[in-house]
Amino acid sequence: MRDGSLGRVVALVRQDCRLLLRDPAPLIVRTVMPLLIMVFMQPLFRAALRADGESDANGAEQGVPGMAVMFLFFLVNIVGFAVFREHGWNTWDRLRAAGARTGELVAGRVVMPLLVALLQLAAVFGAGVLLFDLRVRGSWAALLVVAVPLSLCVVMVGMALTAVCRTIAQLSVLANLLALFFAGLGGALAPHATLPDWTRPLAPGVPSYWAMRGFTTVILDGGGVADVLVPAAALCAFAVGLTALTLVFFRADQRKLSWS
Asked: Which InterPro entries match (predicted)?
């Protein structure tokens, strides 16, 4: 990337950082909400895990990664809002007039949400250890190997939806539906073995399944980095496919509306 291109991407990242620091409430809420749900749902998660053969489980082994994955996908809204915000403020054309290319605009809007996603995961898992007695039998490095491509995948879901949605209402509805659908089908709300039989052949088609597979391999089975390479590779494949989709359908000259 040439110096001018890098400078434009850095400028976009700095802007997103300033806006996040000015109003960190969305990040705080998305971090606190999964922990609040855990307070009420941990007994159910414990019963589900013990019914699945994990006799010494306390529920945090399912609840913490499950709620972390579920609420991470609600970050999709925030990713899209960054683009729609520029259109609502009538500053998008200024970015284009400054010479920013489509790839630079996409890259500039990916970096900060990616860092936020990783921070959110770290906060939820850390609070899970401190507040809910989460016991990780495997390697924390292996959790990171899953967390990084998962975060990138979530961000690129947001960018792909932004590319195909024309209004912020469309984005919001699709993002929320996908977050709930991914949570249910991927095993974030309950252990995958307890879900209806018809979900099992469909589950590998959503990234949340691979995220939960990777996290539970480490947390419940004591897995290391080598044991989560397949889930991590699957998440990378999702991220690559979503990136390609974004670059194909994203049009810098398409007007995005902040209303229906």
From this structure: ABC2_TM, ABC2_TM_bact-type, ABC_2_transport, Nod_factor_ABC_transporter
Kindly report, residue by residue over 15-40, the tens digit of the pLDDT.
Answer: 777 777 787 887 888 889 999 999 99
CB-based contacts of 195: which residues, under 8 Å, 6+ apart?
A: 184, 185, 187, 203
Name beta bridge partners: 167.
257
List, as one string, the DSSP characters of 11-55. HHHHHHHHHHHH--HHHHHHHHHHHHHHHHHHHHHHHHHHHTT-T
DSSP per position, 148-209: HHHHHHHHHHHHHHHHH-SBHHHHHHHHHHHHHHHHHHHTSSS-GGGS-GGGTTTGGGSHHH
The C-alpha angle with vertex 144 and arms to 139 and 145, in degrees rounded to 5, equals: 95
pTM of the full structure: 0.86
Residues 6+ apart with CB under 8 A from 73: 154, 157, 175, 178, 179, 182, 183, 208
- Contact between residue 146 and residue 231 where contact means Cβ atoms under 8 Å apart: yes
- Token pair listed for 65: 């990664």
